[in-house]
Design brief:
This protein has 293 residues and is an alpha+beta fold. It is built from 9 helices and 9 strands. It binds the ligand COC[C@@H]1[C@H](c2ccc(C#Cc3ccccc3)cc2)[C@@H]2CN(C(=O)Nc3ccc(OC4CC4)cc3)C[C@@H](O)[C@@H](O)CN12.
């Protein structure tokens, strides 16, 4: 049946078969979910099953204060200079900070406090004001932990975020200047490294990963810190699958968190598991314009 048949009335002389109301419609070549978004959905489901709440993380631009200083990362740390970080020229500086908290951060960096000797350097507000593209989502974890105490009384939390982070790194087949960081954070009374290890076993077991190994590592904001490895049956080898640790007192106590509250956290990328799941060797097959070299 065509529009011409309908217009010129020729349809009247045609024989039509009965309409099959059970027939499926023609399959349309419509859009597909991006692999990264499918894997993000899997991680989000795992966190929600484990009782975690998603943190707001739509602030790609962050101040150096929240991205570094609040995390007890010293102002002279190499990660803070332009070869690792994208600084923003407009607006170049943030000016709104919780000043009482900022002063406690200044003290713990410059003179030490809470039993820590600090880094003994002249901490500068101008350095903390510099805006950048966040290098990790841990800046949002710091914001959320600080918010916990704004209301005065601490209550235990389990937060997560999965969002874009930016590093001024050398590009190669597996590294772009940005990636998606997956991060989990738990704050509760008297948490131990055992709680972190147990949580990591539970989290990764939901990805089918049961053989984990942990290697001591260093992060400016966690002590102890551990790199996480798993034996990947498909790849027949041990691979690094993330990093983790317990936030330092020098990060938590300036936030006025109770001294018997500990915070355990871990992170991984979204791109690496997605590339493995979809057997991609070059990250450009996952993101970025399709360019035939
Ligand atoms: C500059 O590189 C950062 C990124 C990214 C990363 C590293 C650390 C964190 C973190 C953290 C953290 C630590 C303490 C407290 C809070 C957050 C987040 C992302 C991955 C972390 N990594 C990573 O994702 N690897 C990975 C993860 C899952 C996976 O799934 C497969 C099914 C088995 C496979 C691989 C490890 C390496 O790939 C590493 O070379 C690259 N890392």
């Amino acid at each position: 049946l065509t529009s011409d048949l309908l217009v010129n009335g020729a349809w009247k002389d045609k024989k039509f078969k009965l309409y099959n109301f059970d027939a499926l419609g023609a399959s349309l070549q419509i859009g597909h979910l991006h692999p990264l978004l499918k894997v993000r959905h899997e991680f989000r489901k795992i966190f929600l099953e484990m009782g975690f709440t998603e943190m707001p993380s739509n602030n790609y631009i962050e101040s150096s204060f929240w991205n570094f200083d609040a995390l007890f990362q010293p102002q002279q740390h190499p990660a803070r200079d332009a070869h690792d970080t994208f600084f923003i020229s407009e607006p170049c500086l943030s000016t709104k900070f919780p000043m009482e908290y900022l002063e406690r951060v200044r003290t713990v960096h410059s003179k030490g406090a809470y039993g820590s000797q600090g880094y003994r350097y002249d901490w500068k507000l101008e350095e903390a004001q510099k805006n950048l593209l966040r290098t990790h989502t841990t800046s949002n974890s710091a914001r959320m932990l600080y918010k916990l105490m704004e209301k005065g009384d601490f209550k235990p939390i389990k937060y997560f975020s999965i969002d874009r982070v930016f590093r001024n790194e050398t590009l190669d087949a597996t590294h772009l200047a940005e990636f998606h960081q997956v991060e989990g954070v738990i704050a509760d009374y008297n948490l131990t490294l055992g709680n972190l290890i147990g949580t990591l076993y539970e989290f990764f077991s939901k990805l089918g990963i049961t053989q984990l190994q942990f290697k001591p590592a260093y992060n400016p904001y966690t002590e102890p810190s551990m790199e996480i490895f798993c034996f990947h049956n498909g790849l027949e080898k041990w691979i690094e699958i993330g990093n983790s640790g317990m936030f330092r007192p020098e990060m938590l106590l300036p936030m006025n968190l109770p001294p018997d509250v500990n915070v355990i956290a871990w992170g991984l990328s979204l791109e690496r598991p997605t590339m493995i799941k979809y057997c991609l060797n070059n990250i450009r097959d996952l993101v970025g314009p399709k360019v035939d070299m």
